[in-house]
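Morning F.,

Quick status update on the modeling queue. The single chain you submitted on Monday has been processed. Sequence for confirmation:
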Amino acid sequence: MDYAKFFGTIRPYMPRGRLTQNQVTGFEAIVNFCAARGMKRSHCAYILATAYHETAFRMQPVREGLAKTNEGAIRAVTSLYERGVISRNYALPQPNGHSYYGRGLVQLTFQENYKKVGNLLGVDLVNNPDLMLQTEHSVPALVLGMQRGLFRRRSSLDMLPSFPTDDQWIKARDIINGDVTKNGPKVAQHAKLFMRALQEAK
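Structure tokens below.
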């Protein structure tokens, strides 16, 4: 993998035409994990696009609302609920004291999803949800979760062929979230950029 070519391709499209060290580290961690598993470039490209979108371009694990603290993330989700943006305040602390708002590179939410992904990774995310803020856990959670269809029923990376059409790129948003109409085209554009960068850096 020629990272100089990869970053040379995407740099002009990054905010202000530059890459931070955190972004570089995040891109490399995901690409290396995908490469080690022999994944299709189209799959790796869509994974990168998802992380890019879900972290607001940071490419590092974040709390929902880009909050710095647990309390801040709870406030961010509660505000969405009170404004009618979401129908369920999933950030409310559960009987075990933990809150299951979005964390990581993929914004994992709901206790049942923390349990599923934790079982997959062999770590206790239910009792330690902040582990999703660590790259060593958030990268495999993102990649394996999308590969195995853990985030949305009947939707996984299997829906993407090696060379997707525009429509297939857009519909792949359903792997993560049902907001295909709203965010599908945006994430698809990111994915096509990263696909080109991966092809040029091979």
